[in-house]
Write a structure and sequence with these properties.
- The chain is an alpha+beta fold and 382 residues long.
- It has three domains: 107 residues, no CATH class; 76 residues, no CATH class; 99 residues, no CATH class.
- It is built from 16 helices and 15 strands.
- The strands form six sheets. The chain has a four-stranded antiparallel beta sheet, with no helix packed on it.
- β14 and β15 form a beta hairpin.
- α5 packs antiparallel against α6 and α8 packs across α10.
- It comes from Nocardioides lianchengensis.
- This is DUF222 domain-containing protein.
Length: 382
């Protein structure tokens, strides 16, 4: 047949002539399918995500990130995608791509929780465990797709058994005499996974632990996994909503219930962040770390993509010992920059300067004079 109108984008985008794609693909030096995908993204951005499209036009974000947002939201209705557009437009100009995609995931869930629950049930049918072929050294790869909660428990148990083998040389010698002295944690974790596949060996290990002090044995036998779950009061009141799990991303409440079903849950009081806490020592106490992680959940270095609690807390204003004239209260959540170790080293040794101009805002100057502002919305020229 002749030329036809086809629908490439999501709800609300105009139809296009299908035979125009061939010449456009030639002009772009790409395959027809690649051109088709790019056109769908462009149509979605122009007609369904206008606020995000405005950011793209100013070159304030990377085009591939915007295209990924368009692709992720294509199945949403025209009205539903507006909620995503508003949230993404506030973040895409400064936040790292990973943070933008987390926002998109959360907003997709929020727009239609029932549809997302149906997708969850559909994806559960894809759970599987697959073994790769054996290589020429006798090793194989094990791939598993399983519930996030089960994966967390497997990871914690593997980590705990690996730590036991690392800490007890006699235990290691008795069961794995061929291991070198410089065995790595990664190797021990692989060996620990093998223990889980041999219940009798694992039972023997637990019997060995029974011979230790009862309190110590109890602590040693129980693997632990720490997950930080944030819930809005409205979600708790209605039983419907989206939770933010720092280590896993956005989850609906039913997923949270499944995740925590067999766990010991610790409820922590809501922290009042309107005030500050300061101490008169160099090290940041646990309460300051907790408050800072909530205030600033990401690495404060310009354009960093890391969202983790495994950071150093840096003093933006260098700490001065009180014995040599330093003022009181230098260490606190009012003066703390979370930095990954590499960025902390760069700030300390490579000539960067940083000024904390607000509790969550940092003005950076690079060794060659590049200036950037880092705040909750990301990194921006200053």
């Amino acid at each position: 047949g002749g030329d036809q109108l086809i629908d490439l984008g999501g709800d609300g985008t105009p139809y296009v002539q299908d035979l125009c794609l061939g010449e456009l693909a030639i002009a772009r030096h790409t395959h027809l399918l690649s051109t088709r995908a790019v056109m769908a993204d462009a149509l979605d951005l122009r007609h369904r995500l206008p606020q995000t499209w405005a950011i793209v036009q100013t070159l304030a974000c990377e085009a591939w990130v915007a295209c990924r947002v368009a692709s992720m939201t294509r199945k949403l209705s025209f009205d539903q995608v507006a909620l995503v557009d508003e949230a993404v437009a506030r973040a895409i100009g400064g936040c790292a791509p990973g943070r933008v995609f987390r926002i998109v995931e959360a907003k997709i869930i929020e727009t239609d929780t029932a549809a997302h629950t149906a997708r969850i049930e559909e994806q559960r049918r894809t759970r599987t465990v697959v073994l790769s072929p054996t290589d020429d050294t006798g090793l194989r790869m094990l791939f598993a797709r399983l519930e996030a909660g089960d994966a967390a428990w497997v990871d914690a148990t593997v980590d705990r058994v690996a730590d036991l083998l690392h800490d007890d040389a006699d235990l290691r010698q008795a069961h794995h005499p061929d291991l070198p002295e410089d065995v790595t944690k990664a190797e021990l974790r692989a060996i620990a996974l093998g223990w889980l596949a041999r219940p009798h060996d694992l039972a023997a290990l637990l019997q060995f632990l029974d011979q230790q002090d009862d309190e110590q044995a109890s602590k040693t036998r129980k693997p632990s996994a720490v997950l930080h779950v944030h819930l809005h009061q409205a979600a708790l009141d209605t039983g419907v909503g989206v939770a933010r799990v720092e280590e896993l991303g956005p989850l609906v409440l039913d997923q949270v219930r499944l995740l925590l079903a067999h766990a010991n849950v610790t409820l922590r009081p809501v922290l009042d962040l309107s005030e500050t806490i300061a101490v008169d020592r160099h090290e940041h106490p646990t309460i300051v770390r907790e408050r800072t992680a909530i205030l600033i959940p990401a690495d404060a270095f310009p354009h960093s993509t890391s969202v983790t609690r495994r950071v150093d807390l840096d003093h933006p204003t260098p700490y001065l010992d009180p014995d040599t004239g330093g003022p009181p209260g230098q260490t606190g959540d009012h003066a703390a920059a979370p930095l990954t170790r590499r960025h902390h080293r760069a700030k300390t040794h490579a000539g960067y300067t940083v000024e904390q101009t607000g509790r969550t805002t940092f003005e950076w100057t690079s060794p060659h004079g590049l200036k950037r502002r880092v705040d909750p919305t990301g990194t921006h020229p200053s």
